[in-house]
## 1
Amino acid sequence: MRVAVLCGGRSHERTVSLRSGARVEQALLHLGHEPVLVDTEENVEQLLRDGGFDVAFIALHGRGEEDGGIQALLGALGIPYTGSRSTPCAAAYDKARAKRLLVAANVPTPRFVTFSEGSIEEQGAMGALAEARETIGYPLVVKPARSGSSLGTRFVEDEEAMPRALLGAMSYDVHVVVETHVSGRELAVTLLGGGDSEVRVLPAVEIVPRNADWFDYESRYAHGETEFTCPPEGFPPAVLDRVAEVALAAYETLDCSGFGRVDMIIDDAGDPWVLEVATAPGLTETSLVPLACEAAGIALPRLVELLLADALAQSVAD
Amino acid sequence: MRRSTLDPYEDRYARRVFGMRSSVMRDLMAITQRPEVISLAGGLPNTGAFDREVLASLLEEISRTDGARALQYGPTEGIRGVIDVIVDVMRTEGMDPDPANIIVTTGGQQVLDLFARTFLDPGDVVIAEGPTYPGVVPCFDAVQADVRHVPLDEDGLNPDLVEELIDDLAREGLRPKYLYTIPTFQNPGGCTTTLERRIRLVELAHERDLIILEDNPYSLLRYEGEPVPTLRSLDQHERVAYLGTFSKIFSPGVRVGWIEAPRPILARINLMKQAADLCSSTFMQLLVTSFFTAEDGAMWKRWVSDLNVIYRERRDAMVEAIDEFFPSEVEYTVPQGGLFLWATLPAAIDTTDLLARALEKNVAFVPGAGAYLDGNGGSSMRLNYSAMESDRIREGIRRIGETANEALDLARTLGLDGER
């Protein structure tokens, strides 16, 4: 098959996406397909229209790339594509929207409030700080609502540090999510399938930062900064069952399909809290999805093959 | 059960590699390569103005008359012709080096690396300016050095602060292995250390047994004011090692620089260089030699003076645009030469975050944090004016100014102090 591997783009995570794309390209060659790297930086519509592609593999990350726009375009062009459909992508990418959906479906997610530049101007800094203090309390986490990975995310210990954290997060998006900091162990759960096919929950990967106590952007993408354990050690089976159950609920609540990753914190009582759902998780050599797949006996080429088959099946269903 | 870092070779790496991190900044910088981005982030000399015919004829002549040698290994210390050229260039700057005290290197960057590896064990203290050249940061990281910054002011590096630091270190039982400085048109600070301070720095080095590594890539790019003698030329006691480069006065692509240093240091550097690359490119050394000896040295001097006319005009365009478009609280250096200026915004602004905003407007700069190893510099930025034409510079500065004003408005709304 002639496969468009969509990667690059204009987001801050362009570099990561190019690395994901290159890995997918290798896997496709290995499978005997004809991959064509399509950098979505410009003319993407033309490239897709003229490319004669049988299917598109989406390896895009970050703002403007992960928000469902490319899925809508592919849908309109009638090109089957991997992963979730447009609406779930848009919902998952906007952390505020995703959290609202999760709360409505009783999926546990840390308590949160949202702010925007406009709302802060309206209620004033004192009002916003009071709201954060009273509704959330310290320590808390400030995140841009729409930004891939953890760019602009800040752990805030006390109110004094809050204005700078808000200002920082608002550099990446005008909307920010302020949520309770849940301390505990961080797990990422990869899921395959969805839509009309059954969802398969893969073993969770535990993320243990080597130095910092915060899993920041730098450690996420740098070799050797973080240790990953798959499956995680020392959890009672009941907790891992609950983790799988909550991950599945989050994935289905957002109506994801193809594949995705649910990031969560397991608090000291053993309860999981969903931090976010990624519909376009990274596939680089330091990404979590390939690791979980390997632990489940699915090498990257096999994952790519599964996703292509799923793309074609979803396209028929569409 | 499996424990993994996703890197199967992880447990075999040397400890030092873990100190070398990829950064947010580097990934953000990757997007600055897009053609629609006005990048004031680079440090690129203007090679576009170099006469291609001249380049072609220099290369052709080398190929025809000296081809076998051009393709061959050379001595570790460099070929004689280029060492003579180096002596000439250093004389132009008021020094009179012994050719035997020179080693040709693969760019000035190699001197930074070789010097760090020759002198610094893990935990050793090195003194650097604050801000320091971002390119030296990985060299210090790679040897796990303990870098102590001495803040710069508009008169450059203050010897009194260096002395205070040496005293403080002595109280901790520490002694700095060397001081790294760019005294003229400092990158990224844009400032120049005054003569009075230079004299005192060299005295201090003698009194306190301090080695100085003087990095001097820019001083011939002076378009205003009188040249200030190099530290090396003031040194009577073999305290100063001197780093020079052809990158800014000819081409960074040839990767030819040099170190001139006291003989014992040079012997050690020579051994390190043998391990690193045996010798620098013979072909490129011949090219440098041809260009710098053409017309008895008149050709390169004319090229540098042409560059200075261009750079001066671009600096003026940048300064004018900053005055017009940046928040009034900005403080910045007005360099009399070189390629960069350094601007500092109110402390509420984090310039790494600001870069994310600026990229939305297709403009880029280097955030100041990359010029410090101690977490400072967060509200500063380095702006380059050598690499593009004045109207693009003006538009770039307008966009950064707009971004900074928006961020500052929001900072004030959030109750953050707009002061510096």
Note: Chain B has a mean pLDDT of 92.
## 2
Amino acid sequence: MIDINIHKQLHGSQGVMALDINLQIQKGEFVALMGESGAGKTTLLRILAGLEHAKGKILVEGNSWENMPPQQREIGFVFQDYALFDNMTVEENLFFVQNDQALACELLELTEMSSLRQRNVARLSGGQKQRVSLCRAMMKKPKLLLMDEPLSSLDFSMRSKLQHEIKRLHERFGTTTIMVSHDIHDVFALSSRVLVLEQGKIIQDGTARQLWLANDKYCSVEVLELEEKSDKVMATVYVAGKLLEVEVNSDVYIGQHIQITLNGVYL
Amino acid sequence: MIDFAPFWLSFKLAGLTTLILFVLALPFAWWLSQTTSKSKPFFEAVTALPIVLPPSVLGFYLLVVLSPSSALGSFLEDIFGVKLVFSFTGLVVASCFYSLPFMVQPLQSGFETLNKHMLEAAYLAGKSKFQTVLNVALPNVKPSLVTAFIITFAHTVGEFGVVLMIGGSIPGETKVASVAIYEMVEIMEYGQAHIYAAIMVAMSFCVLLAVYMFNQKQKTKIGLL
């Protein structure tokens, strides 16, 4: 189990803010960390990794990580910008962490990167780089895997492919994981628990289902365009990746948030 | 017959200065690139002084500090038997001061452009700062490294004022190429001066051309061009 009780004063864009986290994470849990920009999500990851200091304690399976340098923490970290060693090939990036041929082979196979193992990382695509970054983070067989928006800079198809690979790795190694994400789709697909951070405090803690499963069929959407069609006023709105036309009253204006119903009917 | 001794002396001086400066400047440039200390501008200004100061000013102070009548000079001469004025050793010491910014600045700016997360990833991989500098930072700033080496070397070969003040012109000991050219002009040996000067121009151009070609090749390699 990981027991986190930390406090740090942050100087954000909205002045001084206190990051206060009191949290227990079970072994093998996949925790998604959500919240507005500047809520303290990345800072929390960096504190856990030992890259930033904070008051308080971090206990990992009974061992205190207080004042422990990042080199000694058993952490795997996946950065949003990959942060690969550009002077090395794919496999050199992995071996730099640990010279474990068998593990490197397995990880590269799981992420379908085996054929690119000799390639210089500077010549990889974004999705390939993020997979290498993920494999590299797993080379230490970490007690805690930290991922800072690992999928945010990837396009939709690559994102869902990598989502599956992260899931596969988690199922295979059972590493306790904390992932920062803004995307409900990613969070729902991967995490067993969701924490929502606001102004440095955890304001929601539960499963994705508990937090977001709609209890009603109403949905608030923004009016993007209005058009008159044979005495009817039609508003164009964006919902669930599609543009919809809905009939509205004549006093509705562009930019207004209106409520529409969603009928969850299986076709 | 052209006497190449001043050139060899210049190369020896420049080679030694470059090597010594690399060892000394590397940790300093790394510290400057990573520190958030308020004293950083002070150290940056001190490092850059040789660029703006007339070489005679630097030469004068080095002469004052290193001469046998000074505390440091007499200490070094009494204890180690090392004479730092009008000697090759003195030239090396003076050159290290004179060329310091040419080693520190390219390295520092190279290190500053490195992705901070990449260095942190090395720490999280369990690597010490020294291992990180050696295996991650330096290989990723190759163009800066080459620039630092070549510019320091070329600049030391081209130094004149400081060398003249600290070393004078002792053949085979302190009479480097730039001093030799000056002397030839003084005694109106323009033909010899021409040959020496032309060699210096050709050599400097080749060195700089090599640097720029290497940098272009590096950029192509990492996909910037």
Note: The mean pLDDT of chain B is 89.
